[in-house]
Specification:
Layout: H1 2-42, H2 53-56, H3 60-66, H4 71-90, H5 95-116, H6 134-159, H7 164-183, H8 186-197, H9 200-206, H10 208-232, H11 239-247
Subcellular location: Endoplasmic reticulum membrane
Main location: endoplasmic reticulum
InterPro entries: Reticulon (IPR003388), Reticulon-like (IPR045064)
Length: 248
């Protein structure tokens, strides 16, 4: 009896130890995803994004086209832009001339088809009546009005001397844009931007784990240089004095 009692006591102790080990291991397994998520959340992401690249680009069909989710559609869009650039830039075709020639050709084909259908016993072409909905026009106009008012408000704050950082950023951006504009005309610059939109997001989405560490180092260096620039230049600008003079 005593030996049986000792054996049962040892079995209970063993079961408790095993149960404790399994619970601790399960707890550690449960902690792993949270630790992984915490590490992922601390990883530097370009532009401080927390969403996938597809969501950053707005999602939907435009993002699908830019990220080549449907290769045929993306290739068609990029190919169409290339054809337009070749026509207007390399062949020096003019927009009004192209529109007029396409309209002449389209109207001539439809006119001849509609009149010839009575002689060849075929039904005339069904030409859809295109009507521009007022709702979409108002939505586009409203969106443009909001963005224009926002830009005008930023320009007003800059002109009033309220934000030195924004002023310097805008001046530097316009200066860089003026230099780039002297290298290319508007159509070529627009085409380059279009090509970059169809290549850079795709490359970044594919190699973001390699690009983000490099971008983090560059961003840290930019912050260091900005601190030096702030101490030597921005801090010496008498913005407060100008505000006091305006109040007086």
């Amino acid at each position: 009896m005593a030996g049986h009692a000792v054996e049962s006591l040892m079995d209970k102790i063993t079961e408790k130890i095993r149960g404790h080990d399994s619970s601790s291991s399960s707890d550690s397994d449960d902690d792993k995803p949270s630790k992984v998520d915490a590490v992922k959340s601390k990883i530097f992401r370009l532009f401080g994004r927390e969403k996938p690249v597809h969501k950053v680009l707005g999602g939907g069909k435009p993002a699908d086209v830019l990220l080549w989710r449907n290769k045929q559609v993306s290739a068609s869009v990029l190919g169409g832009a290339t054809v337009v650039w070749v026509l207007f830039e390399l062949l020096e075709y003019h927009l009004i001339t192209l529109v007029c020639h396409i309209s002449i050709l389209t109207l001539a084909i439809l006119f001849l088809w509609s009149n010839a259908s009575t002689f060849v016993n075929k039904s005339p072409p069904e030409i859809p009546q295109i009507v521009l909905p007022e709702k979409y026009v108002l939505e586009i106009a409203s969106a443009l009005r909001i963005e224009i008012n926002r830009a005008l408000a930023v320009l007003h704050d800059i002109a009033a001397g309220r934000d030195v950082k924004t002023f310097l950023t805008v001046i530097a951006s316009l200066w860089v844009l003026s230099i780039i504009g002297s290298w290319f005309n508007f159509l070529t610059l627009l085409y380059i931007v279009f090509v970059l939109l169809h290549t850079v997001p795709l490359a970044y989405e594919k190699y973001e784990d390699q690009i983000d560490p490099i971008a983090e180092k560059a961003w840290i260096e930019i912050k260091k240089q900005y601190v030096v620039f702030d101490e030597k230049v921005l801090s010496k600008i008498p913005v407060g004095l100008l505000k006091e003079l305006k109040k007086d």
